[in-house]
Amino acid sequence: MEEDYALAHELDRVMRKLDAKLHRLMPSVDKGRVGPMGGLLLLQLETMQPCNIQALATAMGRDNSQLTRLIRDLEAKGVIKRSPQPDDARATLVSLTPQGMAFLTEAKTVLAQVVNEVSEHLTASEVADLIGLLRKL
What we know:
Helix content is 68%, strand content 12%. With 137 residues, the protein is α+β, with helices and mostly antiparallel strands.
């Protein structure tokens, strides 16, 4: 029981630290007001594009309707585009626009800075171990 509390406490502490640093630094990059969830979607999309909304929702652990609304918003902001899936006209593929790629380039710089600040007391081996452990969770 004590270990459960300690794990929850430490995860919460790290998440709050990351969140505070990102909120401090991201406004200079996020001029289009993509927001944290939009940024996560763009990061995920970069590795999967073009992809359908169902695959994106599964990869992000979100429901289709939540992502559909977010995609509509991000499309209006010009950072993603939708197109029909070639083999199924009922399905939609989502991909990044050049503006979305430019945003990611800047956002990744900030994200790397934040992660480096938060993990500055860890060795490269400890960071790799932590990533492995978090993936198990």
